Amino acid sequence: MTNNNPIGLFDSGIGGTSIWKEIHELLPNEDTVYLADSKNAPYGQKSKEEIIHLSIKNTEYLLNQNAKIIVVACNTATTNAIKELRNKYDVPFIGIEPAIKPAALNSEKHVIGILATQGTLNSDLFHQTAEKYQDTKIIEQIGHGLVALIENGDINSPEMNQLLHAYLEPMIEANIDYLVLGCSHYPYLIPQIKNILPNHIKIIDSGEAVARQTKKVLSESVGLSNKPQKGKATFYTNANPKVLSDILNHEYEVISKDF
Ligand code: DGL
User: Fold this and answer.
1) How far is the CA of 1 from the centre of ligand 1 (A)?
2) If you measure from the C-alpha of residue 169 to the centroid of ligand 1, how many angstroms do you get, rounded to a whole number?
3) Strand order in the sheet with 32-36
4) Cis? peptide before 28, omega within 30° of 0
5) For the chain, which domains are there?
6) Backbone φ/ψ region at 223: left (φ over 0), alpha (ψ -120 to 50), beta
7) C-alpha distances in angstroms, 227 versus 5, 25, 101, 152, 211?
8) Mutation choice for ligand 1 from 37, 72, 76, 238, CB with most ligand atoms inside 8 A
9) Which residue positions in the chain have pLDDT lower than 50?
10) What pTM value is reported for the model?
């Protein structure tokens, strides 16, 4: 089956571009439309109702752009709103959830750490997943302040380094052997995190798995693009376009729009 409409993605801000990159790498001929709702970032401290409301707003915008599938490139929006989105719309939704499963199954020490937003760690969906791995100790840490710094372009700031030390050192002491990055913004912090963690601790995120799942759903039910050329990538932001442009290495045009 062929379908040349774009893949739609949204996140509370620029972090979901880490997911977009994986999708673009796996499916280079697909057109994509990415929404950075940075004006409303961070979602992590908002109520479930607010997150649902914002997710509906973003979905409507992407559907108006003819999105054939919607990737919720945000753990917080997935864990709080994907059920409601799937009930409301016919289009398929791909969500992103913290990669607890591979970490728990591969952990030799049976102790893993997870860094995620308050909204993700407090969600029912997260608790349901975590409960499946009773023989693994999960050290949960809310990444207070990290998304705000990333949205400000302050990835390499001393404040960032200080926060990461404060969040990761207790995990090192607890003897984790896996660190799950449960927020799509955090893959941008991997170099800084690696400077803090000992080498034997593995870092995992869900980006690749989301890309594979997107491809699977497109090929099985929605249709892949048959365009021979590279797909067109459109990026919208409702806040400072420079930060989004910087994270994309200035390789793509960023459109400012109040959605
Ligand atoms: N990037 C998002 C996530 O994956 C949201 C972070 C936030 O806005 O708090 O959770």
Assistant:
1) 33
2) 22
3) 93-94, 69-72, 7-11, 32-36, 233-237, 254-256
4) no
5) 7-96+207-256 (3.40.50.1860), 100-204 (3.40.50.1860)
6) left
7) 11, 15, 35, 36, 19
8) 76
9) none
10) 0.96
